[in-house]
Amino acid sequence: MxxxxxxxxKLNGETREQRDAQAAQAVALIEPLRDSVSTVRxxxxxxxxxxDGANYDLTLIVDFEDEAGLEFYAKHPEHQPALQFMPTIxxxxxxxxxxx
Length: 100
Description:
By secondary structure, the chain is α+β, with helices and mostly antiparallel strands. The chain has one domain (about 5-100): Alpha-Beta Plaits (2-Layer Sandwich). It is built from 4 helices and 4 strands.
């Protein structure tokens, strides 16, 4: 079983360049969790490429073995800086979790 956790953010930068910079900061903060949190099976981040302004700007996709793995990740000390940073650059957040 694999639990997939997907989060998308609408960034609050006023220009595409500002949102690109915000996305780069988020990627630099979150992508290392792929290697530092033991319950992460796969982790990728993707910057929106089309329909700038209409679509959400940044998406995180993380796979875990189960819900317990997601909970471990959510509480992991190395994940806390991301939890604190993302609300400072996000105008909106959506998430979905499902089994694949």
